[in-house]
Queue: 4 jobs
Job 1
Amino acid sequence: ESTVVIPKDAVLGVWTASYQIGDRISAAVSLRVEEYRKPEYEVKVEAPDAPVRLGEKFTATVKANYFHGAPVRNAEVEIIVKRSSIGERWFPGWRWDWLYGPGAWWSGSEASWHPTWNRWGCLPPNPPWWQGSRWTPDELVLTRKLAIGPDGTAKVEIDTAPAKAVHGDIDARYSIEARVVDASRREERGTGSVIAARKPFEIVVWTDRGYTRAGETVEASISAATLAGKPVVGAKGKLAVFSLTGGNDGKVAEKEVQSFEITTDAEGGIKQKFAAPGTGQYRLSATLTYEGSEPAEGATILNVHAEGRANPDDWHFGPLELVADKATYAPGETLKLRVNSDKADAHVWLFLHVAGTAGREARRIQLDGKSTEVEVPLDLRDMPNTFIQGITVHGAEVHTAVRQILLPPVSKLIDVTLEPAKDRVKPRETSNLRVSLRDADGKPVSGTAVLTVYDKSLEAITGGSNVGLIHENFWNWKNSYYPGQAGNSLPFPVASLVKPKMKSMQQLGRFASASGRGGAVGQSRSRMGMEGPEGTMAFDAIAESAAPMAMAAKAAAPAEMKAEGGGAGPTAAPITVRKDFADLLKWSGAVQVDAEGHAEIPLEYPDNLTTWKARVWMLGKGTQVGEGSAEIIASKELLVRLQAPRFLVERDESVFSAIVQNDHDSAKTVNVSLELDGGNLEAIDGAPKTVEIAAKSEARVDWRVKALKEGEAKFRMRADAGDDGDAVERTLPVVVHGMLRQDAWSRSVEPGADSAKILMEVPEQRRADQSRLTVRFSPTIAGAVVDAIPYLADYPYGCTEQTLNRFVPAVIARKMLKDLKIDLAEVKAKRTNLNPQELGNAADRAAQWKQWQRNPVFDEAEIDKMVASGIDRLMSMQNSDGGWGWFSGYGEFSYPHTTAVVVHGLIVARENGAEVPGEMLESGIGWLIAHERKEVAALQLHVEREALR
């Protein structure tokens, strides 16, 4: 643990702090150094509790709360609503989503052979690059201004019927932005979204195992939520178990064998245990309704296997399926894998323990009927995940399937709990914070933890902490697998054969180009239950577009509360002046946790009225990691919020405001006063005022203040209700009404004269200690040219134009100096910085030479070398056709602009005495003449053709 003091003159922006051992940086973190003012309240947008059906109206709620816990009152909100389309699917959350992604636990297989699969089936998770089935641009739905109610909320009704009329075949997302301005006149924003779906809510059904045997206890899980992931609480319905049988015609018949009445809990979930029926295929179907909505259904297939021959021939499977017996494993366990196929006695190649592009084992098996169980031992090398790929050939096609096997780092996570002794405190109160640590088995963990407690309002500025989740930092890595190509007898996809000049059938949609030419054969795709690039999706969406539709709404009139004037009354009790404010309450890099897994940290709260955010991180033995957080609200029943500028300039006039909040259950008569110290500020109308504030309400008192002189101004605002009160003290810088100014004059001494005069006006209001008169002189202004030329010669880039512009100025400068009869040898002997545009000590200016690789003073021989070098390089860059391109080399061709620039520069150089090879210049001129003729001829041809029309 170390402390770094940020200098007062530190440059604003992103800084990086790194911990270095020797020459190696072992850790680094970025932080922002900013000037800021913390927000006093936060704004949230909440979706309705009930699911929203596309075509219906819904009400969204804007909620604004101060960080000290009270609702924002006496405020106005501007609401902006936009609609866009979505093509998302939802999976229930899981504790390992941060590692494997949403839905990685899903172990089912696609049952597209079932006639009603499209109604209740669950597809594998979409890969990360999936952007939905169709995109439509954002459409402005409404803007509206409303008053915030006394509970800090405002409600807006949104009609989704227009979206259903135009885009009824796709779900819609309504993005809502709320801009709230309270009595402080400061604006804070919050955003949220509501999804209006074609189905009222989604249902996902799964079991605690991929397959089972007759008589075993199976736990079925049902989760109901909107597309946005909001749980549907209190939905009622039935879980039915249907046996599946198939006839000779390939059709599937269902018969209900069990059923259970179900109701979703507070998380929108249900768990139901039952004994697995006899051997066979079953469909577990959950049907739910919510407050009169249409029934929604979700289901999954459960296979109950028997010993010996796995199943009769009328069982239904996909071309190839790999089903694991459970969702997660630990090293040392044995994976029981069911290999299923709709082809009886199929031969399957299994590639096991696969990661990257290789596997550790390959097996060739023959199915016992349509299904066979395979045992695969797992070890540490398979953590945190491994893959199994199966390949089989039947029906003249190659079929592949991939299954991801998950071995999460359960033993590496520590459960961290933060328990504040009090959830609400007052300023300057002392209270304890308790840390409890437990491992995966519930046993205590001891060691050293890191703790921080900071003002939560900072997150509204930064967007959150600059420290990510510790378990992701240490354990968010996993194996990837990109299945190789498995081909068939056709070496490549063959497009359909058509007659000459006849167009073949084309695929439609956004992804037509991703699947090659239309009507191709020799390709095989299958959906695989895995995450990201390891899976393959079927591209069957059709991209469409529609004109946006806008709706307008009238703005509500804003509300404003004004404080009344009056005299100040006596104070019944002393009022503590709050002036000790902090952004960081506590930081400790070494919190000692005892053998029982506990630590007690005392906290002494400063004068902030806010929400304090506590976070703790733990790194244990064997890189066990964990973190936890808690929030504590610091508040008062009667408080004053001070509003003033961050600084003032002398002679400024400004409004200082005191917003007094009364969270008592009764009305209060409050005396409000402004106190100024130091003589930097003067109140224009600074008399104390008395205001009547109703219970759970607020009032604002304003004073006009003038800045008199620069310095640090101290002021206080006091609110006294007799039995309760509050006071706040702040300092404010008053800066000078002026600025540093530089006036510059230049004169030249005429030939034959020995002096020149400069008249200047000295400002009356100036600071003598900051006033300087500096005189700099140079024998000739031409010396500035001498400084600049070598820097051009050392320019590190070498395109054609840069090469030309390195030596041509040197040629011109040499001729100019000769014309002015300036002896370069004398200039060289003087050894000074001759640039009169640069101010400063002559010795310091001369020392500037040392920062360049080349001395800015040169002689005739040196300049001749520069010119010859530049001409030689341009000659080597000239193309065979006589012109020049951007760079020389294979594949380069000539440009008219570049060639014209070079030819012009060479002519200028020759006119100023440079020896330019005549053949090189003539070839360049010849290329320009030929190009001109070609362009003119093309233009004439175009004009003649237009005249004949």
Note: The CA atoms of residues 255 and 862 lie 100 Å apart.
Job 2
Amino acid sequence: MASQQPPRQVVGRRAPSLLAGLVLALRLFVAVASAYKPLSDDFLKLVPGGGDADFDIHNGELLSPLLIPRVPGTPGQIKAQEHLIGFFQRSLPKWEVRWQNSTSKTPVSGDRELPFANLILRREPPWTKPGQANLLTLVAHYDSKIEPKGFVGATDSAAPCAILLHVARSIDKYLTQMHDEMAAAGEGGTLDMDMGVQILFLDGEEAFLQWTDTDSLYGARALAEEWENTPFPAMSNFQNPLRQISLFVLLDLLGSSNPRVSSYFQTTHWAYQKMATIEGRMRGLGLLESKPRAPFLPDGGKLATQFQGGSMIGDDHVPFMYRGAPILHVIPSPFPDVWHTINDDGPHLDMPSVMDWSKIVTAFTLEWLDMMEVEPEAQSATSFAPESPRHGPLSQTETAGSILFDSRYTSQKQPPPTAHYAVCSVPDPIPSPSSPTVTSADSASNTKTDQQPITPRHTVAMDTKRHPSSFQQLEKLGEGTYATVFKGRNRQTGDFVALKEIHLDSEEGTPSTAIREISLMKELKHENIVALHDVIHTENKLMLVFEYLDGDLKKYMDTEGHRGALRPPIIKSFMYQLLKGIEFCHKNRVLHRDLKPQNLLINNKGALKLGDFGLARAFGIPVNTFSNEVVTLWYRAPDVLLGSRTYNTSIDIWSAGCIMAEMFTGRPLFPGTTNEDQIIRIFRIMGTPTERTWPGLTQFPEYKAGWQMYATQNLATILPQIDPTGIDLLQCMLQLRPELRISAQEALQHPWFDEYNYPQQQQQQQQQSPLMPEPPRGYSQTLPSQANYDGF
């Protein structure tokens, strides 16, 4: 690690064994799109963690050969290279081994160019063609600093390299078993997206003189640039090797005692939570040897509002991040005391911490590969148990948070949950952990209600015929700035409801978002919009009573999707319902303005409904000039990003298009980190507009004349999972110019939905001819889990 301490801040964005016992603990349902499920306790106990034979500083097979100076271009680095490549050739012959070479001038070499060599190790299914597999990418740099003389860099980064060697060896036999079983069953190449693992040992991370943009990251910069400019064949799943990276996990400065690894990026906080969950469970089970003062990964309960927007520690991930790769940076802050000193050597390593990291990263990798375990009592020693049945799309939801703060595994106290886990999302500025959100800055409401203009001390008349005691309050579902959501039960009917309690401030009165939500939802009654049953007003509390649904689309994708991706028939059903809800809103002159998977609620019959109208607005008379601080960043239309305050219904259509693409891939289409970053990500795919292609572009407040010109990408190439008719609909929704976007009403008549529109025509004919057959099932029928969808 070469960034100076305190950590360099980069602001914004410029430009066997898996042992016979381990294998027998698995049931491989790779051919079926299955839900994410954490590894069982019994499985975690089988995860190998290495020992003295691997990590002894004098004779350990993995670590000791790396505890030497490894300056680029020196004999020590050549020995390190021979050790790394020799390990894979001897022990892991099924891994593909490649070098990526480059040269560069440095501050100490003058006009002479030094060689830099990145080692790329990859294990994909044997039937996979180039550009087809999604790759979990584990990374460490293997070079060391030139000064002080004799510097070894045990934490920086000999120990991380040895940890990755351990991970590769640990997962190798599992991968072999998985590939063999799929091939024997004739399932090889039948999945929409295969998964693999690649390990990068990067050269030239350290600065030769002083950390700058040009004197550092020599190997990372060369590799990222080469991959960006190496296209795959036209029919590949991915455009280039950069796009194959499902997650870029960078290990650095690991091996000292009491490390504190923060969650640096809100966009990958969900992955951090999975790793933190694994650490907490392993500690609770007594599987880790170190005795730190606090967990290695203490930020599992970090809220979205606590991220520092745009700051990070400079490291090898930067060139990849700037090109769109999702980053999980596993580096302690503050840095170890031995950082960049001669004491960063073998004797100063905390060996229990090194071995614990090897276990944690191994378990994280195995869990990422969608291993489905079977409880020991459900299997014999020689056979696998059958898949357990599922009872609905959300019945087996298990979140990272539900394990992270389990008292059996950790003494950590759980902070108030965010709206991500709410049945009815809380309409306030707190977003879900998986995506950045910008809050509304509207100054006034123009909705059709009896309320007066909002002032600092505004109240609204409510119906007080009911009392909060009419409902039994059950478990808490979510909490935001001004509201808390509970699951509840109507004491008279016994029906479940969602209770949103809004605490009234004596100075501010009723929050404007609550007033807006109540005003609009009283008018919006539709099968694809969450119903507001009642509003109960007391002296210090306002309670909104909503219909209860089982979860949201994001949770459904996480639990029932294959790496988050859903099957096409389910996507079509959800998109049809989403557009029906949007159409009703727009016909009633309402903009939702915050459409995202977390705000689309789903019941156990597969019905989808729009929720969280806290940012919604009526449009039309008397004004239609709105705030541009709306819509979660990833789903925000380009005209809003550019500062437009005169947008219309087209902003909801853009969001719907982003959601459609995400359901097919399991990942956001435009996962930006800042407003500028979001604009660039959109232009990279949709093409950079000009005044000729978008008249009036240069008049937007956020327009910049220096934007790089990107060519428009073929959506069919970027999203090969979508059929041609679906691509056409998506293209109609994702138009840069708002006036060119399709309306919700037009989208519902698109040929992609013929199977839903045709039964309506058939029903009309059936009234004239009773002998007509029954129409095929529509979207309103019960929706089974992904694993059973073949029977639907």
Note: The radius of gyration is 27 Å.
Job 3
Amino acid sequence: MPNLEAPEQQEDGRNLPGPAEPHHAATPFVSRAKAEQRERTQDQAPPVARFYLAVSRIRSFVWRLIEEEAAHGRAILFAPIYMGLGAIFWFKADIDPPPQTVLAALLVLAGSFLFRREAGRVLRHVLFAGMLVCLGMALAQWESWRASTVMLDSAVTTTVTGRIERRESYDNGGWRYVVKVDKTEKPAIRRPPERVTIFVRKQAEPFNLGDRIQGKARLTPPAGPALPDLNDFAFSSYFNGIGANGFAFGKPTLLSPASDVAADSVSDKADIWLAGLRNSIGDRIRRTLPGDTGAFAASLVTDERRALSDETTEALRMAGLTHIIAISGLNMALSAGIFYIGLRYLFSLFPGMAQAWPTKKIAAFGALVTLTAYYLISGFGVSAERAFIMMAIMLVAVLFDRPSISLRNVALSAIVILSLSPSQVLGPSFQMSYAATLALVSGYTLWKRRQHRENILSRSRLLSPLLFVTRFFGGILSTSFIGGASTAIFSIEHFHRLATYGLAANLAAMPIVSVVVMPFGMAAMLLMPFGLDGPFWQITGEGLELVIAIAKTVAGWGGDITFGRQPAWLMPTFIAGFLLMTMLRTSVRHVGLLLLLSSLGVAAFGSGVPKPDLMISEDGVLVALRQDDILATNRERPQAFIFEQWQRALVASEHQPPTILPVDSRLPQISKTDHRRRLSVEEQGAVRKAMDEALDQAMQGSFACQKGAWCVAMLENGAMLVTIEDAAYLSPACDTANIVVTPVRLRLDRCRSGAMLFTGATLRQTGSIEMDLSTDKPNVVTAFENPQRPWARHRTYNWRTGTFGAPIVRASPVSDNGE
């Protein structure tokens, strides 16, 4: 890390060398007189001179602060920030940045930094920052090349043949499998994904890892953003190697068991063996502790969370306790800490050994081995990988007699993670984990520098246990508050909600997790090979029952607070303020406090971003109209996955289902199998008339539907919206409405009448759509304006020609008259 440049000499001559002052000049009276004379001279100077003098003073003050930060070694802490910025720039770009340009910039900046040592320290710091930004971009490019996941271009029902690599149970008896695809048939997918997830309903005897299976399945591409600027699930699927999701029709057929399938390599064999061990451990725990308790315990060990019931999962979420389920820094820290402290206590029972051997390092090495074993059976999840790297670096620091809890170690772990998987920088898990860690480590550093004072509790033998209890719960309270406050804005940004009573729930649950659940769970794992784990799992289960009861009780107090989408500047402002607050030691960090308070104030009391009036899902199936906090949809039971995201992002808690019209015998009846049906002129006229009449039965801003055929709605601006389920209704819909939406993939992208037309084909490329109808011309915003990034390029693939087509250039589908 480059050193920073020393302050330049000030223009008033205070830092300039000169003749030595006589001895009496150092007296306070003479110094005060000189200072007063200098101030009078400055006050009499011209305005321009006073301005330059003020600038010089500010520059000198800033340089002094920078020098002080550099002296504390804080400059190196910004290295992962520069790398993360480079990765964000690469992932957020509309097109792939040319790799040769990124590489050339990296080499030029690195060479300039290494060989231009005579350059000013400011320039060297700029070169260093630019080099790391380019390095982050290059690592993001490399990760994308390394993944190269083939994404399914469109939904299809096909017969899949493949080998099972992962499995996970559900609370309803179903199983979710990750299948490595060998082939597809009936029809054969021209561009098949390499790996897919398939859900099998109510399977009593699950398939084993390595089994080769075949079955008919409905596959769909990974979901895109539910609304523009929301989370793109296809992004994470791309870097996880999953090209499609789906469900099986019936139970697939076992073609050959795992013993008959030759693994591709030694690493594949090791991977299957570890996954099998992980499943065996999870099954044993769930047999010992049935129900949600066993599923909870298994999730703490193997990260299998889907076996938890929806009721318990929702209660944990509303109480702010979902971080306990995920194998994150909490679990890793508790497991490593319990083993480390336990070993050191054991060694202390033998004074001779404690004096002759480096017991601290031995305990750290043992904790590192335990931590590694925990990581291997955890399923290699993103949060587990990150927590393992962070804790491993801290334990290695103990082996080399370095401080284990320090901001340098946090920065080093971030550098390692960003080097291995730069895509994590955009995920809420990475951001919230490091926000909490930075805040806790920074708080610990301040607490360590405090002035120690004795009190009556510490001097009394009778009252000292009370001091221990006070410090224990005080530590839990402070860590829960710091962790919750530091991650609040990230929860608002990514999930649009915040647990109302999370602090109370954590204060009640964390002592149970720390004292009962994790210690006895670790003992059970150590004794499992000997078959002595049962009693320890029972005690662990009792603790988890209490945690679940706490979660349900706190969730009953009122749930969480819902926030809408926030302005784009809010998150960068908060992060900048947060980094200044936690990573600096000088008075500059107070600027960070100002940024933090302003961003939190906007999130709490601001109105957020303008809310759309009309929303269309990326498949065209679900359409909603918003009025205040009410969402009126064209479906009686909208798809929860999409609709709940809309509700949180738009702060619209109420759902208004459509008015279902009675069956009209005068209207044509089209079966689901009759896709090529064309309506006669008389039938089209009858449909147009029925649509006009349906508007009279629907309230403004809500839908009236002829079930299975079409829905109509009158918008606030007087325009008419029609959604159709079959292409046969396209002509009367275009003649009647101003906006037409259909999930059918039509070759047309516009109505002859001039109405706006959104079809399954156009929505496939644009993604979800939101519309502002407050102006004369609707303002249309699409999730994708140019789907040319690796995780979105499949949207432009044409399976008939086997080529990638040109993306939609316009912001949205338009009519034939250009409106």
Note: Residues 464-495 form the longest helix (32 residues).
Job 4
Amino acid sequence: MIVYMRTFFFIVFLLTHFLVFSQNITFSWAKHFDGPVSNGVSVKLDAAGNVYTAGTFSGNVDFDPGPGNFFLNYPTGTALFISKSDAFGNFIWAKQINDVQIFGDPLQIDNNGDILLAGSYSGTIDLDPGPGSFFLSNSMGIDGFICKLDNNGNFISGASIDGLDNTVFQFHDLETDAAGNIFLTGLFDHSVDMDPGANLSTVTALGGNDIFVLKLSGNYVLSWVKQIGGLMNEAAHSISIDPSGNIFLTGYFSGVVDFDPGINSFSLSSNGSNDIFILKLDPTANFNWVKQIGDNGDDQGISLNAHVAGNLYVTGNFSGTVDFDPGSGQFNLQSEGSTDVFLLNLSTAGSFIWAKQLGGPLSDYSNHLTTTALGGIFLTGDYRSTVDFDPGPSAVRFTANGENDVFILKFDPSGILAWVRVFGGAGSDAPACMAVDAAEHIYTTGFFSETVDFDPAFPTFYLTASGSINAFVHKLSNCDGATSSVMDITACNSFELNGQTYTSTGIYVQTMMNAAGCDSMITLNLSISGTDTTLAVTACENYTWNGQLYNTSGFYRDTFTNTAGCDSIVNLNLTITHPIQTVINATICEGESYEGYDAAGTYTDTFTGMGGCDSIRTLQLRVNPKQYVSLSGTICEGESFLGYSTTGTFIDTFQTSNGCDSIRTIQLLVHPRQYTTIPVSICEGESYYAGGSYQTDAGTYRDTLVTQQGCDSVIITQLTVMANPKPYLGEDRGICLGSALTFHPGSFASYLWQDGSRSADFTTDTLGKYWVLVTDNNNCRGADSVKILVFHDPPSNFLQDMDSICRYDQLSIIPERSFSKYLWSTGSTAPQININTAGIYSLSVKDQNGCQGYDTIRVWQKECKRGIYIPTAFTPNNDGLNDQFKVRAYGDLIQFKIAVYNRWGNLVFTSTNPAMGWDGTYKGKPQNTGVYIWQCQYQLAGGLPSSEKGSMVLIH
């Protein structure tokens, strides 16, 4: 009856105590934009849950990831795309803007649901992606653009930030506030007019790249602009506005930088190549505080978020050992590999709260961070090798499938890992940006290569990139239908719940799938009132229990009824013991002991055993004595006596047949051997008696005699065989007609020629046979001979009469035949020369017979094409083919500069030498597969200054 009543209570409880439980993170869907090259850069959500993705592409790309097609095409360069889908990944529309560049997180949805985009351009662009047009054009430098579209992708408005003489201008992040104001940050060099209106508001970089932060109204009216910089390079990667309107920036700096953009100054000096800065400005852009984090490596702040009141969260990358407490305290983190990920929590007053790190043995990167009103901190990036993603005492390890894989994770406000998801394939895969809605559904964009399973769990969901890299959009869902309940149950002996039987008091948890397809967790607080206990007893002879006398071992039971009306069972496990008498015969060796006795005899001991019974032990002990032996010996050096080979006294201990020690003492004397070494030299082909026979080979030979003590006397002969001299008169050959030939056999002590002469060389102009006999300083002799067989004619007519050359080009002049020596009129002694001017060139040669010749060529100038060529991809894999990204010029360059930037806008390569190419590394580290932006300024001789830009793909 009790059980039925409690089951009824459980049913009522389930109807009234369900609670929402929302930690079931599952794969929802993944889409990709299929074509030669596409790259996801930024993703945002509107109030209706629609998903907006911005990025870049080249060639013909299908932006409808469903069964239909929607192609955008730009075959000659790099274009921007923006795509809209619903919350289920269904395609709505896609637009493109050609010949622009975007960096960082340049996309935002304002309070009206309109789309804001920011980027860079040079030349002339059309910002209207529809049938209309809105042209922007610049004549010098790099300009910035801001574009607004409605939620259908229709053009609303646009504006330009005009570069004056700059070569770099990049928007890295875009934010809006509740009033619709636009906040932008990034980097620039030289001079830029930051007012998109008719007025002029010029900022000029102090050194390399400087930081700017800009506030515009929703109609692009300038509110203010601030500049931060020093003599080296700085960049802001991220901007965030807190609920009070304060402005926060993070990025990196090097050298000495004044972070107060007002009339006062507040300077910091970097510890390494780059340090992290975190800057706070008030709503009117007045300096509030700045914090510095970094050591002697490359440390950068990548993304920050100040949307949770009172808290500032910052993520980025660091190397080495870094103190993440920017105050007077210390909180050191040390990277596991060359680059690790950090997550830092400061108060909005700049006080340290906590810091965490993620990393493995290679380089791992954080790319974006965001937070939600529910307190979740979300982070995405890419990792290599094996990484422990739990910075706490537990370990949550994943190993990348390829070069680098994607991770997405969540921390709670205390910095404790809530969950982590990873995916990737055999190639290079990386996220760029993420967006999280109010229900904590997570959307991520980036790029992938080859084939990737986008479902972090099971089963699988594969997508394959048809080009070098493709953009992806990925969604993880937070299961909102999860439930939980609590049951308080009291039972006598056992209780059954959902087929599971419990027999002891405790707290039990069951997790099942509910009707919504999410987890339903039941917590059972169970109390078992019935008892079943066992008493183990050992007694001597007999035992009395509950008035009953027991004299044999056994298992006995008694049953009572407790106050709850349940049976209380007591079990007796009884062991009856009896007195024991034991006799032990033992033998030991002299000097040992047994149970505390070391002399022969009979000993009796009495013990009290289990149950209080006596145990009597009688010990019969025998002691065996040790044995001692002394020996003496005499041996020769190199021999041994009983295992010993040196003079001395040695003591050995052995075991006799009765198991006791036998001790042997040896007195040993060792007589030494005698050694005599004799050095001897002979010529090659001679012999010398040693080692018992005549020797002709170099080496060490031993002859052994016997001393008066009967030991060896060893004579060691060190025999050296001197090589006979080898004069060389050359191969049988001819002689050039009209010239003489001199033989030089080499440098020796004396010479004898076939005619009896004794000079060091011999000259002749006659056919015949010639020989020489020489003697060296070791008095060894050698000979050689040669025949002069024929007369040879000297070479002629080996250059073509005429050739032509472009004014800016280079021409190779190559003889029609090969010779042994060359002397050009330019002074070169190479087999060929490269020239860049017209004229008459002559060549003197010597052929393989040693005969000399002379010829000339006349080169005249012709007109050729002019310009430059820049490749669209390269593969730095050291196979000798396309290993560098390099410019080819058709013409004489009098000015040249090229710069290459990665997806974060960092300058990874620059050169003013057109012959120098980029090998795909930055600060000695190979860069990831992906799309890189280049900008080139140049001037050909006789032409006007020119500027070009575009993108190329680095492929590993």
Note: Residues 1-22, 513-519 have pLDDT under 50 and may be disordered.
